[in-house]
């Protein structure tokens, strides 16, 4: 197992991992709002990788037997010119994707990936890391809690009749 920076050689693996994550999210979505659009596989990886590129980010892959079995993407998004009005604006990175394929989960790969991303964020002066976690994803919530993350905001939803 090795952790490497993204390489186009693994683009199809990245697409497959993102589809696996989205299928999992769909399976636990109690609101039934998530879906796997027909264009998802071909476009989501491109969107995420472009976001990483445009926002001083990184994509790291966990490689086993010349196949990507996990990935993490993180960015350092700029603050708006008005953020300072209600926020101290410490330097922070944001994890936008983290997935380890089901076949190799619970083997420490997620820990390796998140540690690599946190090291990158520290190296460029970030003081905090943000991550959005789907409210119904108890596995991810427990994983991040064990890594020292905690909720800072909640976004509530209500279906209108």
Record the SSE blueprint.
Layout (H helix, E strand, L loop, with lengths): L1 E4 L5 H18 L11 H15 L3 E7 L2 E9 L16 E9 L8 H15 L4 E4 L6 H9 L15
Parallel strand pairs: 4-5
Antiparallel strand pairs: 1-2, 2-3, 3-4
Please describe what this structure looks like.
There is one protein chain. The chain is of the alpha+beta class. It has a single domain (2-146), classed as Aminopeptidase (3-Layer(aba) Sandwich). Helices cover 35% and strands 20% of the residues. The protein has a 5-stranded mixed beta sheet with strand order 1-2-3-4-5, with helices on both faces. Helix 1 packs across helix 2 (40-54).
What is the CATH third-level topology name? Aminopeptidase
At the fourth level of CATH, the homologous superfamily is: Gcn5-related N-acetyltransferase (GNAT)
Largest β sheet strand count, sense and barrel closure: 5 strands, mixed
Query: What is the domain tally?
Result: 1
Rg: 16 Å
Please state the second-level CATH architecture: 3-Layer(aba) Sandwich
Task: Tell me briefly what this model is.
With 161 residues, the chain is α+β, with helices and mostly antiparallel strands. The chain has helices spanning 11-28, 40-54, 109-123, 138-146, and strands at 2-5, 58-64, 67-75, 92-100, 128-131.
């Amino acid at each position: 197992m090795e952790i490497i920076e993204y390489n186009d050689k693994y683009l199809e693996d990245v697409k497959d991992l993102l589809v696996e994550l989205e299928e999992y999210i769909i399976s636990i979505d109690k609101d039934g709002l998530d879906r796997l659009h027909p264009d998802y596989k071909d476009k989501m990886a491109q969107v995420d990788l472009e976001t990483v590129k445009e926002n001083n980010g990184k994509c790291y892959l966990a490689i086993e037997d010349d196949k990507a079995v996990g990935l993490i993407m993180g960015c350092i998004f700029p603050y708006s010119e008005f953020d300072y009005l209600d926020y101290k604006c410490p330097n922070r990175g944001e994890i936008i994707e983290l997935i380890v394929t089901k076949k190799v989960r619970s083997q420490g790969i997620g820990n390796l990936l998140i540690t690599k991303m946190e090291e990158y964020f520290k190296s460029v002066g970030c003081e905090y890391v943000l991550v959005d976690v789907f409210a119904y994803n108890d596995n991810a919530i427990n994983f991040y809690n064990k890594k020292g993350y905690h909720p800072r905001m909640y976004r509530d939803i209500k279906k209108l009749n």
